[in-house]
Amino acid sequence: MAAQDPRTKYSNADFPQQEQPIPGLQKELNPKPDCGETSYTGHGRLKNYKMLVTGGDSAIGRAAAIAYAKEGADVAINYLPAEQVDAEEVQQVIEEAGRKAVLIPGDIRNEQFNYDLVEQAYAQLGGLDNVTLVAGHQQYRDSIKAFDTASFTDTFETNVYPIFWTVQKAIDYLEPGATITTTSSVQGYNPSPILHDYAASKAAIISLTKSLSEELGAKGIRVNCVAPGPFWSPLQISGGQPQSKIPTFGQKEVLGRAGQPVELSGVYVHLAAEESSYTTGQVYGVTGGTQLD
Ligand code: NAD
Ligand code: MG
């Protein structure tokens, strides 16, 4: 038998309780998520592509950025200035893969920054074949009374508006064949009452993916979405989950454990690569078993 058992491919032991302020740093996370630094092998599926990844410093965005580089792409990553240390680790892996890494720190809640981000990525990479939108904000609250306007706004300004702003600018540069990949969540289908705003924002991302795919398909640009289940990441221990849920995070899934970011790499690569040329307006679930419906 050549294939690995998905239940035991990664540990399903309890995670240690730990808390970090927002944004959490991958460098401080214990254990470290596997983002494909050594475990992902490329096969030239994105040779000479130019890609922009938001949230590319850590966890899911890092896994996408690293896989893209190992598949032959030059990659610009965006992240918050406080995450510079994580971003530099990603830069090193991209450069070790023989590709160009462009670091563009900045806060995507700022409308103008999103336009500048796309322009800088295009200018510094010398083109743009894909925009991968992974950045996100998730803060749990105990009840609807505990949500306030500022936090609700923060969630939508991080998770939803930048898709609208980056795509508005990116379509000035994207040519037929280019792709846009968004990142939703199982929460977009199965909303949890401790994440009212986050879940609603992730449902909005699914809707935007579908409506954008219809408009941009006419220009030869494909738009698809990845919907992860529980993945071990800094977002979860910086307020994404109550501390009491951290040790057993992911264990209730059919496969019995949390996902590791590298287990999403293949889907992000697939949706940007030539092999998915007939796929647009779709949501790909990578959930450990929870159904998307
Ligand atoms: P993460 O903390 O590694 O990634 C989130 C990233 O968002 C940060 O690295 C940060 O760079 C970026 N970000 C947040 N606010 C920002 C801002 N104002 N400006 C610029 N960048 C900002 O955690 P992750 O779990 O890898 O999350 C990545 C994405 O995956 C998020 O959209 C999240 O909602 C989604 N997701 C995660 C899970 C999970 O279980 N980890 C499940 C479903 C969906
Ligand atoms: Mg980060």
From TrEMBL:
Compositionally biased spans, kind Polar residues: 9-20
Entry keyword Oxidoreductase: yes
Pfam families in alphabetical order: adh_short_C2
Record InterPro entries: NAD(P)-bd_dom_sf, Sc_DH/Rdtase_CS, SDR_fam
Keyword line: Oxidoreductase
Region ranges (Disordered): 1-32
UniProt xrefs under Gene3D superfamilies: NAD(P)-binding Rossmann-like Domain
Similarity field: Belongs to the short-chain dehydrogenases/reductases (SDR) family.
Protein name from the UniProt record: NAD(P)-dependent dehydrogenase
Organismal lineage: Bacteria, Bacillati, Bacillota, Bacilli, Bacillales
